[in-house]
Amino acid sequence: MGVSLPRRYMNILYLLPYLEGGGTERHVLSLCKGLKERGHGIRVLAPRGELASEFERAGIPLTFYKSLGESPFSGARDLVQNLKYIYTHDNPDVIHVHAGTELLIVNWWVMRSIPALKRPSVIFTVHTYFSKTSSFDYFLAARCGNRLAKSVITVSHDDGERMVSSGLYKDKLRVILNGVPSPPSLNDSEKKKFRGEWNILDNAVLLSSVGRLEEQKGYDLLIPAFASACKSHNELYLIVFGEGSQRDRLESLSTKLNINHRLRLPGFISDAPTKIQATDIFISSSRLEGLSLALVEAMAAGLPIIATDAGGNREAVGLNYPYVIPIEDEFKLAESIDKLVSDSNAIKELGMTLKERFNREFTEDAMVEKTLQVYSE
User: Fold this and answer.
1) Closest CA to 29 of 53, 47, 1, 11
2) 306-340: pLDDT as tens digits
3) Regarding the domain with residue range 11-179+363-376, which homologous superfamily does it belong to in the CATH classification?
4) More exposed terminus of the chain, fewer Cβ within 10 Å: N or C?
5) Domain residue spans in the chain?
6) Does the fold of domain 188-361 match that of domain 11-179+363-376?
7) Domain spanning 188-361: which CATH class is it, in words?
8) How confident is the model at residue 116 (pLDDT cuts 50, 70, 90)?
């Protein structure tokens, strides 16, 4: 029988274009925690943002640079200086760039001054591009990935196919599905406590969603669909954890539809993956998605899900899952809410099925181990 050799210690630098509360940053946070637990050296280089405190709480060293989006020239100069310092003092073995193709280019420019044999491996993870220029974004990411990265990771097969169709060499592609940690379980009294804080009765059916209050997430469709379902269900409520530019519009819409007393918008909270256990059904109404971390976190919480057929959503819940609906179909969303809320057995059974699927395919450990394999190739 062969003897497995211990993995060598690695110094890993994560390079991010932002550090807010989105899926990219939480994905990196999970990777950092898992790799730190395995004894590897970690540093994150990113603009200062609201999720910085979570990294600091986890003992992950942070270095900040000025955002390129806010100040392209001084931001690029600041990034170059920080990269040069880290290359000199930390001697990283791996540079793992996330989301920003511009960061891949700046890193390449800095690396030119390093002797070839001393250069670290460069890994690039593409997190789904949502802008109006997304076709060009994928094209640029594919071309830069081919030339400037050893391997390119996508977090869903859907995104992997898009990258290859945009020109990425197939042998460069590695698909590693998003993984999240299992949340600490809430007992009945804890669930009751949270529902009390949200002013939700114990016997009410509480729908939940987690995401930025932006057009991409489709909350302007979810609220009217929810209002329609409320006509048949007197004790139905909706809570959406997240913040964004659409808050005023969504609040006005709920008032216009006379369901503002049933809607809760508590803003961004870092422990949403735990608190959603106090809800009954999770909704993803997105117009665009990669492989949604919030969706996977709902699976980990054992919640049944209603999701649009956006990005990797169907891949997450399973090809034959009964509550995947067309994108931007407000009527089908309302119909699905009404149907699932009316079937308490389905709520329980689907939640258990998705929890089992999470344990098989979407754990944080599985994601970390597969990422380590890419670093070691």
Assistant:
1) 53
2) 999 998 899 999 999 999 999 999 999 999 999 99
3) Glycogen Phosphorylase B; (3.40.50.2000)
4) N
5) 11-179+363-376, 188-361
6) yes
7) alpha beta
8) confident
